[in-house]
Structures are given as structure tokens and as C-alpha cells.
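Hi,

I'm pasting everything inline rather than attaching a file, because the server keeps stripping attachments. The sequence lines come first, and each chain or strand is labelled.
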Amino acid sequence: MKRFVGFVRKEFIHIFRDRRTLLILFGMPVAQILIFGYVVTNEIKEARIAIYDQSKDAVTREITDKILSSGYFRLAKRIEDESQIEETFQKGEIKEIIVFEPHFDEKLSQEKSAQVQILLDATDANMANLLQSYTAGIISDYSKNIRFDNGQMPVIQTRPRMLFNNELKGVYMFVPGTMALILMLVTAMMTSISITREKEMGTMEVLLVSPLKSIQIIAGKVMPYVSLAFLNGVVILALGYFVFDMPVHGNIILLLSETLLYIVMALSLGIFISTVSPTQQVAMFVSMFALLLPTMLLSGFIFPIENMPWPLQWLSTIIPARYFIVLIKNIMIKGTGLLFIWKETLILLLMTVIFIGLSIRNFKIRLE
Amino acid sequence: MNRQSQYMITVKDMVKKFGQFTANDHLTFNVKRGEIFGFLGANGAGKTTAMRILCGLSSPTSGEIYVAGYNVYRETEKIKRSIGYMSQKFSLYEDLTVKENFRFYGGIYGLKRRKIRERTGYLLDKLNFSHAMNQKISDIPLGWKQKLAFSIAIMHEPRIVFLDEPTSGVDPITRRQFWEMIYETASQEVTVFVTTHYMDEAEYCSRVSIMDRGKIKALDTPANLKQTYRVANMNEVFVQIAR
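And the predicted assembly:
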């Protein structure tokens, strides 16, 4: 028994001295429960909407107030002209526009019926459905509470229109998300593992002693992964297009260029991971922990970023896939040009530069 | 310095500091052409640091250092082209065949395809290993891997070859065969710079330097060292110095 206790004690020492095991043991469940708990929710919180009020009378103002005071919505823009609708959706920040028809109050009192149109950006079908039902709910609530003197009840009709994806296909969300996830994993994980493998095997040293320049070594190492990942991306796009009827409304060259940019970004991230990981195992662990889960949960792939609490929203701004998903969705589904997505493109470019800079710095310290 | 000079490596007052720690403290030594120079020292004495500087993997803090006639500060590219290097991990690609490893390493030294074929044939012939040309490295025993790694290190006909503990972990017979390869290489005017932990191997060297805590404590032929310290073998010399 004493021998057995000694053995158990030794095992505990192993666990407590190994930070990584401890992290998995205690950090993982806490992080996952918190993230899932907060992320997996079907509630709307302060969704940004626009209102196009062609009537501007007492009733429309009341309805607007009611919608905005519900806590679910926040007025991000007032639209004054029909032509602004398209532009607003192209920018992508606003997912819903509420349109009141002209002479709303008049119609309501004379014809006992008026119309509210709810325009929705349905690239994310679930989110569009959710917004629509919340809005319609508030409006019908309002209409139930008004009664004319003669006891008659007016009808406010809500007419939802799903833009960009009128069949509400989930694949519109699924294809860009999968693509972001797979390209990130294939590229960053494979690059970091293959570079650390050379370090571990000792072959990296021999390469460094050879007349090859370090830039040649790194470029030579990552080149195959760039081409393979690009091929992978094209396959996913082709599958989406031919099998799932995913449209490509935008410029195909722009689409492929952004894909390539994302791959290069993932690659530079992979190189960076390899400079901080001494072994393949660590590289693998870092890639999984730092890339797979956040990309899945915080990129907006599965759960809408708008509905997350602010710390997670803030965290999601450093998830590269978030920007790539926006880019791909906008180009494919909305046919957006570079004019409306230059910000996301710039962020990906910036991330690439940062990771390459950090890698070079780490590499130099190691050679020192 | 004249490239035809009798010294292949000249080191004068080489210092390497990592923050407060001095890994190499004013090392001064020369290595002659065609010599087998043994670089000895306990673990952490500063051998690897010095060797990395000579190979152009790391830059010295100060000192005047020439390798194959080239300045280590300004001409690392030329140095890299003139040297061969074999690390203690043997550094062959396990998932590549013998032939593919030769082709890869020949390629990164810029050898023409015909030259690669020629050298591969010649070196494998000498090893009596041509039959295993298409075997993967992972299927080959350790002793053979080590001999192959050495052949690859001298494939591009370097003027100096650096061997970092090349015999760690191999059996005595293979070690013996390996030293025969070193001798043969040195007989062709190739300078061999070797670090080792085995004192019997130190006896095979033309000259030996022994480092301790960043300094060179002794440098001479094995015979002279034994005489100076009045002991029977190199092991005793080493113990006296590195105690």
C-alpha cells in the first residue's frame, strides 16, 4: 500500500509540474463552458438596424420607439432615400432595415391596415430569421394594443423580405465558414508542424549551415503549402458552386485573390507558431488551442458575433477568419466590390505583416 | 589572409557573450590544412557555441576569425559554401530514400544533376551501400545513418568539415569504421574539425584542444598532452583539466 501511495504521489507531481496538463485539466472546461454558454444563445442584443420611414407620423414614431426601447435593437442609421438601401446592406454592418410605407397613420385609420416591410440581409439565414421574428413580434404586440373608438382593431402587416438569400439556405454561411476554418488549419498547422519537424530532427541546423539564405529556406518550405491550400480553397468554392448552388455574384479574381491573401496570412501565422514552439507536439497543441476553437466559435461561422457579450466580441476582432468570412460572403453572395471590403482586406494584410515581423524577430533571437 | 595559407581556421581572441554569461572567453587557436582537430570539453564548456560561430550560425561578440580564408563577420556566405557540417542528430530526412537525401543536399549546395549522380555513386560505392540506394532512411540502422550523414556532409567536396559529436550513440565497431572514414577524408587535404566526448577518439586526432568554462585550457598533440600532464591516456588529461 505504501508503495502504491508513493506511486500516486509521483503521478501528482508530474501533473502539477506540467503546466500544459494543468491547463487542459482546468483551463479547457472553464473556457469552453464560458464560451459556449455565452456564445450559444439565440438572443438578440442591440442588433444594428436602419429605419426608412416614408411617413414620419405619430404612429410610425411610436412603433420605432417601441422597437428601439426593447433593448434588442439599436438604430444605426436613418435612411431617407430608397437608393441608400442597397448601399447600406453592401457595407454589411446593418442586417435589417425597417421600411414604413408612406401615409402610414392615414392608411391605418382609414383602411384599418398598413404595411411595414422588413428587409433582411439573409446571408446568415438564422440571424435573419431571428431578427425578423423579433421585429414582427414587437409590431404585432403594438397593433394589439391599439383600438379605435368604435372597438375595431387595425391590422399592421409585416412583410419580411430576405435579401441575397431568399430561400434562407444555410449553405451560404456554411461554405465561407468551412473554407475559413479548413484553410486556416491546413495552412497554419501544417506549416508550423513541418518547420518544427525540421528543428526537431536537426535538419534545420544543416539547412542553416548550407549556402541557402534563410528566406529561401522558409519560402521553399511554405511554397508547397500555399499551392496545396489554394487548391483546397478552389475545391471548396467549386463544391459550393456546383453542388450547393452557392452563387458567385462578385468578381472571381477578387475572390481568389482574397483567398490567397488569407492563405498567406495563415501561413505567416504558422511560421510564427513554429518560432515559438520547440517541438512538433507543441506546434500541434498551439495550433489546435489557438486556432481551431476560436476560429470555430468566435469568427461568426457558427454563432453571430453581434449577439456575443462584449469581451468575446472584442476577442473576435483578432480572429482572422472573422474578416475572411465577411469578405467571402460579401463577394460571393452580395457581389460586393473592393470598395466596400477594403477594410477587411487591409486587416488581413496587416496581420500578415505583423506575424512575419514577429517571426523574423524571434528567428533572429534564436540565432543570436 | 591568403587562402593558400597553411591554416584553414584562424581564431584570435574570440569572445561570445550571452548577456552577462561569457560562453567563449578569448579563444585563440589555428587549425592546419588536412588536420583532424579535436575540440573537447565538458558539457556546457562552450564547444558548441564556438563551433556554431565558425559555421556562420551565430555571430561572435568580438575577435578576429577566419574560416577557409573568409572573414566570419562579412563573408559567411562564402564560408558556408566551403564547409560541410554534420550534427549529432545526423540530419537525414527519415521519409526520404538514401538517393533522395543525396539529391536534396547536393541540390542545396548547387551541384549539377550529373555531379550529384556521380558523387552519390562514388560515395555509396565506397561505403559498400549502393544496394540500399532506394531504401528509406527510417529503415536503415543507426550506424549506417551516421556514415551516410558523413558522406552527405562531404558530398559537395568542402575544404573543412565540422562534425558535432558525430559518434554519440553508436557502437564501438561502427565508431572505429567511422574514424577510418575521417582519416581517409583528411588524407585528401580536407580539414576535419570534430567535437567528441569519447577520449579514445581524442587519441585519433592530430591535435586536441580542451575547453573548460569558456576557455581553452590545453592545446597540443595527444602525445604531448599526455607527456605534459604525465598521464597514460587522454582520459586522465581531460579529468585533470576539467576537474
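The longest strand of chain B covers residues 7-18.

If the labels don't parse on your end, tell me and I'll reformat.
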